[in-house]
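Module 6 notes. Inverse folding takes a fixed backbone as the condition and produces residue identities as the prediction. Think of it as a translation problem where the source language is geometry and the target language is the twenty amino acids. Below is one complete input and output pair. Work through it position by position during the lab.
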């Protein structure tokens, strides 16, 4: 499994948690240890989206894919 495939698998695992509140997440890219994602739905405009990105998304990805150093929302 490639690093990108591992990242996408983690995103699919956490996707349901975002969808419960009307949000979603889209994988955009992975390069040089940095994952870029797009938060969608209610997550896109939520004032707490940065917290969701760091505590849910980045933590889950970095735990399962140690090659990842950072997750950014675009």
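Target side of the pair, the amino acids:
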């Amino acid at each position: 499994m490639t690093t990108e495939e591992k990242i996408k698998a983690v995103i699919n695992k956490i996707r349901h948690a975002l969808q419960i509140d009307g949000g979603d997440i889209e994988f955009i890219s992975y390069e040089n240890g940095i994952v870029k994602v797009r938060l969608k739905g209610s997550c896109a405009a939520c004032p707490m989206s940065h917290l969701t990105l760091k505590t849910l998304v980045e933590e889950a990805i970095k735990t399962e894919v140690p090659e990842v150093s950072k997750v950014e929302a675009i």
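Reference fact for the lab report: The first helix runs from residue 3 to 19.
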